[in-house]
């Protein structure tokens, strides 16, 4: 009887420890998410009526994008095909609104673009975890998604723009410095033809490309977030 009670007590103790550890793990994850939200978006996104500011905010605060191209793969030639690409729109302290990418000719996307330069790039406010903090589904209209369509082109190697864009890419995505050197990497950007955005109820809105590129975005939330990570 004593041995039975001892075994039961040990089992209950272990179960309690596991439950506590599980709860602690969940709390740590929640704290990490909350920390990222509070420091990556200290002031939160702009008012949804400020279309240009919202568009620039989302672009600057996203680290990656979905890029859709017209596939050249034999089995799906001519089909839309999407891929994930790391992205910047300038340095952490100098947003330009222009999406820049670091690509290799070996990749799906670069192969497609070599034949047809048309593409659409999508970024979402969900990447910042702000929507999660508001308990919004990624498809909720309030969880802003920005879609830029246009033609992709290489940035001339050695040009001032190339140096700026590559430095910005490596600043935000330091792993790029260790990518295989024999993959013929190049910097690409989009000549934007249309900007569509869903940031509230009532359907998509269209943002003037001229106004978007001319807007002086001065937000420093990305810079503050990364500086905090390296304290």
TrEMBL record:
Domain of life: Eukaryota
Keyword Cell wall biogenesis/degradation: no
Annotated signal peptide: 1-19
Keyword Signal carried by entry: yes
Domain CREG-like beta-barrel: 46-213
Family listed: Belongs to the CREG family.
Protein name: Cellular repressor of E1A-stimulated genes
């Amino acid at each position: 009887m004593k041995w039975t009670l001892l075994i039961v007590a040990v089992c209950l103790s272990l179960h309690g420890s596991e439950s506590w550890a599980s709860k602690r793990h969940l709390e740590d994850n929640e704290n990490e998410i909350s920390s990222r939200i509070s420091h990556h978006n200290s002031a939160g996104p702009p008012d949804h009526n400020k279309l240009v500011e919202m568009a620039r905010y989302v672009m600057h605060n996203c680290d990656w994008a979905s890029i859709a191209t017209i596939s050249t793969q034999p089995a799906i030639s001519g089909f839309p095909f999407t891929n994930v690409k790391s992205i910047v729109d300038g340095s952490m302290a100098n947003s330009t609104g222009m999406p820049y990418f670091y690509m290799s000719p070996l990749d799906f996307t670069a192969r497609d673009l070599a034949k047809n330069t048309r593409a659409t790039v999508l970024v979402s406010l969900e990447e910042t975890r702000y929507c999660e903090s508001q308990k919004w589904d990624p498809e909720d209209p309030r969880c802003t998604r920005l879609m830029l369509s246009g033609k992709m082109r290489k940035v001339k190697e050695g040009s001032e723009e190339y140096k700026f864009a590559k430095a910005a890419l490596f600043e935000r995505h330091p792993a790029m410095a260790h990518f295989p050197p024999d993959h013929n990497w190049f910097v690409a950007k989009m000549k934007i033809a249309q900007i569509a955005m869903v940031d509230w109820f009532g359907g998509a809105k269209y943002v003037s490309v001229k106004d978007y590129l001319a807007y002086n975005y001065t937000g420093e939330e990305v810079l503050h977030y990364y500086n905090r990570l390296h304290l």
